[in-house]
Amino acid sequence: MRQPTSSSHTLLVTLLAVVLAAPAMIGVAGASRDGEPPDTRASAADPCQQVLKSQGNAEGLHRRCEAIGAGGGASRGDFNGDGIADLAIGVPYEDIGGLDAAGAVHVIYGSANGLTPTGILAPADQFITHTTLGLVSPSAGDHLGSALAAGDFNGDGYSDLAVSAPDYDIHGPASRDGVVFTINGSASGLLPSTADNAPTGGTHVSARMGAALVWADFNADGFGDLAIGSPNAKVRGDGLFCSEITLDVTDAGRVDVAYGSPTGLSIFGHQSLKQGVCEYEFAEAGVGHDSPEQGDRFGAALAALPNPGGGSDLVIGAPGEDLGLFDKRDAGVVHILHGNLTGLSTGSANQLISQDTPGVGGAAEDGDQFGRVLATGNFSGNREALVVGIPFEDVGDNAQRDGGAIQVFFSGLPVVSTDDSVFISQSNLANVSAESGDLMGWALAVGDFDSDGRDDLAVGTPGEDVGSTVDAGMVTVLYGASGGLSTTRIQHWHQDSTGILDFVEGGDQFGYALSAWNYGRTRHADLAIGAPFEEVQSAADASNQRDAGAVHVIYGSSTGLNSSGNQLWTQDTVGINDTAEPDDRFGSALY
Predict the structure, then answer these.
(1) Are 572 and 582 in contact (CB under 8 A)?
(2) How far apart are CA 36 and CA 429, in angstroms?
(3) Where are the alpha helices (DSSP H) in 2-52?
(4) Which one, 242, 310, 434, 461, has least CB within 10 Å?
(5) What is the separation of C-alpha 135 from the centre of its chain, rounded to a whole number of angstroms?
(6) Rounded to whole angstroms, how far apart are CA atoms 501 and 529?
(7) Residue 262, exposed/middle/buried by CB under 10 A (0-12, 13-18, 19+)?
(8) Sign of the Cα pseudo-torsion (250, 253, 259, 260, in order)
(9) In a 3-state reduction of DSSP, which class is residue 181?
(10) What confidence tier does 40 reach under pLDDT thresholds 50, 70, 90?
């Protein structure tokens, strides 16, 4: 992003960059830039079908492949209205009806005894597929369940589920257009018969609609609203002096916002947003900063930040944003849009943050992808905060490549303050050290695990080596304190932690996905942890199902998370529909 003083400056700088820069300089997120060796697995046709490389080469997987999805919001998923959260689990690589990686979603309901799938204390586990949703012409690689969010979109007191298939083809084979569905909640749980397409203002070719989702009440009307990220969308560029002579920009990204009503999400008041300062008829509205550029991937991550007006502001990540003509490629930025009674603001008063913003730690560098992961919480008990995950941040004087970090911003002016923001890597924490390829900040979740009135933060580090076991993965919990997050009262969880079910194995990537709600048992928040590359021993014939996936749940207590009574879920767990199979990646997304 070039911090233009006018739209003419923006276009001139953009044209200069195109003329002078070699093709490799264009900031297309997800492209391999480091000459990584080809994948050697049997399914190498899919570049995402590989485990993390050894330390120092971790960029081989996730720099070449986009994150499978993200979801979030300020509402727990209580789909049956019993006051206890339920857990939605994405299985985006599930094979359905002979279609490879068509995808699916499981919903396990909470109860007084915690999560239970049997239908005795709570509704039985639900298995949601294309058939459940009535989706026409599903195909291989749709990746249903990539992103999840829950909110009460129709105001009936029950949480509703939003689920995406960002690679669903509408405009032809492999077009990867994307689709988002909502399913209404009820006293008996989710009602598949109510499944409906979320209103998005039309379909968008190769947009990957639904790669990110977030729930919030942006206009403070009491109905849940849904923001939908389409990071690969083609949008209209900003013309010189906002003239009508302008070109479309591929992979720039857009965000659609559908507002809730008594009948659910409505096209009425719908907003389509992009980076930029120009507004054109029948095109997306610019958010007041920067201009759309190829590979920005605006909308790749979303979060909602409560505001003093009773609504929420929308936080949008553009991790592929370039901050220089010839360097700082894919450095990334974050936009914060004000929510008010008429919806989200698109004016210049909105906030734009990068690692080149004064007060922000780490410094913008090639490939950092600042804004790839987002979360919000109130860690001090009196100030809302925004957390930005930077899993590709190089730490330790850049010696630990892709070690990862997080940046915490507290509420202030114009929306959050950068003056007292905090940069945290593993170098700041006890009993752990920053290493190349750890990917700290790959996933984030917020919950009050000890019920002290302050939120706590769970940080996924799926590339962490545990002992000599490579890429086993780890989750670090930083507890809230009067000044924000504590870096001394922390916990490190992995599959060899005392009392945790299962054990570490190479490539499990424990901490790849996270979600935190109160699933029952106590009044404390609990933590769900995805390990989608977990090898599961088949319950049928004891054969090993590679990358079948698993989800761990650690329950809260008055002293914080405690391994007592923790749970391990797979598709072979009694009461769970379907069976564990190779490459299902159960637990790739959680809500």
Answers:
(1) no
(2) 31
(3) 7-20
(4) 310
(5) 24
(6) 12
(7) exposed
(8) positive
(9) strand
(10) very low
| Alpha-carbon distances of 573 from 86, 117, 181, 186, 539, rounded to whole Å | 17, 9, 27, 26, 8
**CA-only gyration radius of the chain, Å:** 22
Cα distances (Å, whole numbers) of residue 462 to 133, 366, 446, 493: 32, 21, 17, 11
- In this prediction, residues 9-23 reach a mean pLDDT of 35
Tell me what the pLDDT averaged over the chain comes to: 86
Question: Exposed e or buried b for every residue in 427-452, given b needs 16+ CB within 10 A?
Answer: bbbeebebbbbbbbbbbbbbbbbbbe
How many residues in the chain?
Answer: 591
Cα 484 to chain centroid, rounded: 23
Tell me the three state secondary structure of residue 572. Answer: coil
What does the pLDDT look like over 78-106, one tens digit per residue?
999 999 999 999 999 999 989 999 999 99
DSSP 301: E
Under a CB-based contact definition with an 8 Å cutoff, are residues 413 and 422 in contact? no
The C-alpha atoms of residue 304 and residue 344 are separated, in whole angstroms, by 12
Distance CA 252, CA 237 (A): 9
What global pTM score does this model have?
0.89
Determine the 3-state secondary structure of 10 from DSSP: helix
Tell me the C-alpha distance between 111 and 235, whole Å. 45
User: What are 140-174's pLDDT values in tens digits?
Assistant: 999 999 999 999 999 999 999 999 999 999 888 88
Whole-angstrom distance, CA of residue 483 vs CA of residue 420: 11
Comparing 21 with 297, the larger pLDDT belongs to 297
List, as one string, the DSSP characters of 407-455: EEEEE-SSSEEEEEEEEEEGGGSTT----TT--BTSEEEEE-TT-SSS-
pLDDT at residue 243, as a whole number: 82
Query: Confidence class of residue 581 from pLDDT cuts 50, 70 and 90?
Result: very high
Q: Which of 296, 361, 366 is nearest to 334 (CA)?
A: 296
Contact call for residues 459 and 406 (beta carbons, < 8 A): yes
